[in-house]
Design brief:
Elements lengths: L18 H4 L76 H4 L2 E5 L5 E4 L1 H7 L3 H4 L4 H5 L5 H12 L4 E8 L17 E12 L5 E9 H20 L3 E5 L5 E4 L1 H7 L17 H17 L3 E8 L8 E11 L5 E10 L1 H26 L6 H12 L6 E7 H5 L14 E8 L18 E2 L6 H8 L3 E3 L7 E11 L2 E11 L7 H38 L10 E8 L10 E8 L3 E9 L3 H20 L4 H15 L4 H7 L15 E9 L4 E7 L5 E3 L6 E2 L17 E5 L5 E5 L11 H11 L7 H11 L9 E8 L7 E6 L4 H16 L6 H18 L4 E7 L2 E8 L19 H8 L2 E7 L2 E9 L10 H7 L2
Antiparallel strand pairs: 1-2, 1-5, 3-4, 4-5, 6-7, 6-10, 8-9, 9-10, 11-12, 11-16, 12-13, 14-15, 15-16, 17-26, 18-19, 19-20, 20-21, 21-24, 22-23, 22-25, 25-26, 27-28, 28-29, 29-31, 30-31
Helix pairs in contact: 10-11, 10-14, 11-14, 15-16, 16-17, 20-21, 21-22
């Protein structure tokens, strides 16, 4: 009588059926013979999973179909599939059953020692189907040849009724037609743990039921158990196994060390026991989704607190669904890592990146302008709203007005001007003081205030917030550049924003320092710019120059926009006799060095011009001066060292070009002398412009060559242009091309001179920035004949009276009666001196323009010299009297002698006339 399972059902899954009960006690014996492919009577055995190994023999009262009419629970009719309709109690064991993993198999051995029952699990382990296994001698079929003898002895003992358990090596036959008792040496080898239980057939013969487990599966289970234990016991991460009811089934030591208690204390708890309600609800929803869908969750951030601490902690949670060996969900694995420090480091890194980006933006946006107020506004454009919500910048008033050192730096209470304000909260006022300060207002901070302390110590200060106000936190940061405090920047954050920390404090100091350097650079630029303007104004003619018989217009464009000065210059010098000297020059070089040399040469030119020298003589003297500029010993040392190489450390070479012209408004004749300069351009009425043929001498500073003069008569209304090479020459435009363009631009000389200058500068390339540009233009307007009185007097005493008569008559004709007495007295004095000390004929000339000029000519070469007469001297007071009564007097050499002159202001000129009587009395 063999033992068979109490319930035999067929299923596609070997784990289906009544596995739990069939692994235990043997069910009742069923009479009958084994049918089918076994060919022998025997019990129908099933493995522990409840799989049916064969069909029951026809020996039951139910008929000859070979199927059991019912199970041990009673007679339950089966359906067409052979399964009872109400067999829910025979379903799979609960999830996690050990039999899902061990997968034990069974087979039975008949009285003849051959296999008469073969389960499906046996087919899986040994790889042999039932139709081949039934009828085989298990010893001959599976046991290696060297162990078959001992195996036969064991089989005999088993069939004698003895139980046996042990490890049996086996080899599966690989050939399809392997005969009984013959093993295939090429089959798969393995090791099985076998439990053999003796049984008795229905005929009373001894048989056996064998339970087999693959040892390799057991070893795998042992390894998995060890790994699972290691994960739970040794993992540095918090590990939970949550069941399908979302309660903790198991927790590891790491999790228990964080949330307190022992591992067993956490069993049965839910996420609401560990997390705040809102966070727990969110996590619960995620757990349900994972349990339902099987989708894993990676790096889910959870925030909560651990017992005994108020600190907010952050965890990174990984969730995945866990299945049993049969594939059924049994819960969720929870793997948690504390990332609180990592989150803090990430916040620090994000803040550092934000600060670095802010500094980069500040470097790109602050300092683009050399204006103090603009630079301050650029700072606020960077910090609001990226760094703070409100901000202001105050600069010392002294810096803004140009003082070198701002007053009051010692106590921080000096006057400041608010130059910039920015707000990101609907133009809310800055609550920093007793009352808001308007932009542009001048104010100061009290001595004991934090702002004054910040200015005084050059250290940032934290300003306390007003109760009930808008501001939550304020930093007062001094703006320090090159160890000098230039102002104060205030940064504020409103309530709701994060207060300023140490990192924000350091960033604010860095931002203020960068802005302070830019503001200081702007201050230095403003100072240098103002100095350059002062230098430029001192080196060039002030305002619009005026000259007798000329209409003047001029332009100067510096090649260096940073200094606004250079080596080019022009000048208009009034000479005696209503004559005018026109000068244009160019010192080789650029910048302040050339400007200083130009200033020295310009001063020398004006000095030489007042000596009333001829143009060639002026340039010769100027050449000697230029040669001495770069020599410490002056002109004489330069002359002696001319034959020796110069020491570059002690001397410099100053070279310059210059054109000097003297225009006489009475004769409309102009005398030119050129020292290596470009030729003047003349435009006569109705004619095309032409360049005057003035011999170019050597540049000033070279020496050794005389200069030539050219005299040209200028017609009325003619246009004369003097210029420097920067106007007509650049890297992109050769000199010849520039000269032709300049001549072509002077097409309409009748236009106003200012318009002509603008037209020339707009037509030519004047923005190249390679050299300075100077342009001097003059339109000829000679003195009319009725404004000139000219007489020749014989060399006799009566000429003195006749000269007074000529003068009186001419002044009356000009309606200058107030000047008659003074003029008669002075004319009488000069004519008398000409008779006594001069030679040849005497010439008297009166010139009326903006002033009245009287000239007395003679052929003598001796220049008059004024001296102070003693009280006892009868004479020697004539020239003193001329100096007292006239606006100016002097003498100059002429080609045929000399000229002595004096000048009187016109009555309506605003200059009071000197009373001759008082002048005479002042001499005694």
């Amino acid at each position: 009588m063999s033992e068979i399972p109490a319930k035999a059902t067929e299923s596609e899954d070997p784990s289906d059926g009544a596995r739990a009960d069939a692994a235990g006690d043997v069910a009742r014996a069923v009479p009958g013979e084994a049918a089918g492919s076994t060919g022998a009577a025997g019990g129908v055995a099933a493995d522990v999973t409840g799989d049916m190994t064969g069909e029951a023999t026809d020996g039951t009262p139910g008929g000859a179909t070979g199927e059991a009419p019912g199970d041990i629970t009673g007679e339950v009719p089966g359906d067409a599939t052979g399964e009872a309709p109400g067999d829910a109690m025979w379903q799979s064991s609960p999830p996690g059953s050990i039999y899902d993993y061990i997968k034990a198999a069974s087979f039975s051995i008949g009285a003849d020692g051959l296999v008469d029952q073969w389960s499906l699990r046996a087919e899986q382990i040994f790889g042999i189907p039932a139709e081949r296994a039934v009828g085989l001698d298990p010893i001959q079929a599976f046991v290696p040849a060297d162990r078959r003898e001992s195996g036969q002895r064991k089989m005999a003992e088993i069939l004698d009724g003895r139980e046996w358990t042990g490890l049996v090596p086996f080899r599966t036959p690989a050939a399809e037609g392997a005969g009984e008792g013959a093993g295939d040496p090429g089959g798969r080898e393995g090791l099985a743990e076998v439990y053999v239980m003796p049984t008795t057939t229905e005929h009373g013969e001894r048989a056996a039921v064998c339970i087999v487990v693959d040892v390799r599966t057991l070893r795998t289970i042992e390894t998995d158990l060890a790994a699972s234990q290691a994960i739970f016991g040794q993992s540095p991460f918090g590990f939970l196994l949550i069941d399908t009811d979302l309660q903790v089934r198991r927790a590891n030591k790491r999790f228990a060390s964080i949330f307190g208690g022992t591992v067993d204390d956490h069993r049965g708890k839910g996420v609401h026991d560990y997390l705040p309600h809102a966070e727990a609800e969110r996590v619960t929803a995620v757990l349900r989704r994972v349990l339902e869908t099987g989708d894993s969750i990676t790096d889910m951030h959870v925030t909560g607190q651990v017992p005994g601490s108020d600190e907010r902690r952050h965890w990174s949670i990984n969730l995945y669904r866990v299945h049993s060996g049969s594939g059924r969900p049994i819960g969720i694995a929870w793997l948690g890592t504390d990332i609180t420090s990592r989150r803090a480091a990430a916040r620090e890194a994000a803040a550092a990146r934000r600060n670095l980006a802010l500094l980069n933006e500040a470097g790109a946006r602050i300092g683009n302008s050399l204006d103090l107020e603009t630079t301050a506004r650029e700072l606020l454009d960077v910090v609001v709203p990226g760094f703070c919500d409100l901000a202001t910048v105050d600069l010392y008033q002294g810096l803004l007005v140009g003082d070198e050192t701002p007053p009051g730096l010692a106590d921080g209470s000096a006057e400041l001007r608010r130059v910039a304000f920015a707000s990101a909260v609907s133009d809310a006022p800055f609550a920093g003081g007793p009352a808001p300060v308007a932009v542009g207002a001048v104010h100061h901070y009290p001595f004991n205030s934090p702002c004054a302390d910040a200015l005084r110590t050059a250290r940032p200060q934290h300003l306390p917030a007003d109760d009930g106000g808008l501001i939550q936190s304020t930093l007062a940061v001094p703006m320090v550049a090159h160890d000098t405090v230039v102002g104060l920047a205030q940064f504020s954050r409103t309530k709701g924003s994060e207060p300023f920390g140490e990192r924000d404090r350091a960033l604010a100091v860095e931002l203020a320092a960068r802005a302070a350097v830019c503001i200081d650079n702007a201050r230095l630029y403003r100072r240098e710019h103002e100095r350059a303007l002062i230098l430029q104004r001192s080196l060039l003619p002030p305002g619009d120059p005026e000259a007798s018989g000329l209409d003047i217009a001029c332009r100067y464009l510096p090649g260096n926009a940073a200094t606004e000065v250079g080596g080019d210059w022009f000048d208009v010098i009034e000479l005696p006799g209503h004559r005018t000297a026109l000068v244009v020059g160019d010192v080789m070089g650029r910048g302040l060095r050339a400007a200083v040399a130009m200033g020295e040469l310009r001063t020398a030119v004006r000095t030489l011009a007042l000596l009333d020298l001829e143009p060639a003589e002026v340039l010769s003297a100027l050449d000697e001066i230029a040669r001495g500029l770069g020599t410490p010993g002056g002109v004489q040392q330069a002359t002696r060292a001319g034959r020796q190489p110069r020491d570059a450390d002690l001397s410099e070479v100053y070279l310059a070009t210059c054109v000097y012209a003297v225009y006489d408004s009475v004769t409309r004749r102009c005398t030119f002398a050129n020292a290596g300069h470009l030729p003047p351009v003349l435009v006569e009425p109705g004619e095309n412009a032409l360049m005057l043929d003035v011999p170019p001498g050597m540049p000033l500073g070279v020496g050794g060559e005389p200069f030539e003069e050219v005299e040209v008569e200028l017609p009325e209304g003619a246009l004369l242009a003097l210029y420097t090479d920067g106007l007509v020459e650049s890297r992109d435009h050769p000199l010849d091309e520039g000269l032709q363009a300049f001549v072509g631009a002077l097409t309409d000389p009748s236009r106003p001179l200012e318009d002509v200058c603008d037209h020339v500068l707009n037509t030519l390339d004047t923005h190249h920035g390679e050299d300075d540009i100077a342009l001097l233009m003059a339109r000829v307007q000679g003195l009319p004949a009725e404004s000139v009185g000219d007489w020749t007097l014989p060399r006799e005493p009566r000429s003195v009276g006749r000269a007074r008569e000529y003068a009186r008559t001419q002044l009356v004709a000009w309606d200058l009666e107030p000047l008659v007495d003074t003029t008669e007295l002075l004319v009488s004095e000069l004519v008398t001196n000409a008779l006594r000390y001069g030679e040849g004929e005497i010439r008297l000339r009166l010139l009326l323009d903006r002033t009245l000029v009287c000239e007395v000519w003679d052929a003598g070469l001796v220049q008059p010299r004024r001296r102070r007469a003693r009280d006892t001297d009868e004479g020697g007071r004539g020239l003193q009297l001329v100096g007292l009564l006239s606006a100016g007097w002097g003498s100059r050499r002429t080609p045929r002698g000399k000229t002595v002159w004096f000048e009187l202001p016109l009555p309506d000129g605003g200059t009071p006339l000197t009373d001759p009587a008082e002048a005479l009395l002042s001499l005694f």
